[in-house]
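Annex B.
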Amino acid sequence: MKTPTPLVVLLVENDPLWGILLTELLQQLGATVLGPAATAAQARALCAAGPPPALAVLDIGLDGPENGLQLGRWLQQHRAMPLLYFTSEERAAISDEVWATDPLAFIPKSSPAEELRQRLSHALDQARHPDRLKVRR
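Response regulator: predicted structure tokens.
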């Protein structure tokens, strides 16, 4: 039996500690991680150099002139990949612009660890099987 190819996930997170935590969680869930990138420019460079990602996990607040929302729009236009937003912004503060990108999920950084793991797992499953229902918001 052939071993399934790990899902490649682009991770864009400008906080080094969150970058390490998310990388470890995604790897534990069977993903190959590109990143973490701290800026939109770094994320584009990773996409150009590495294997094509099947999912992007984006922090909305990034270093540099572009935020995660702008990068998400670019990724959808140029890479046609699903998005998951992970940010310190609380749900009530998220603009309609974010929801207009039709993300798989929005996960506040204040989420409990088990919820974070579960929602990442669901997002990975959705990226592997896009015909299934989306992660609940």
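Residues 33-128 form a domain with the Rossmann fold fold (CATH 3.40.50.2300). The longest strand covers residues 31-37. Further annotation is deferred to the next reporting cycle.
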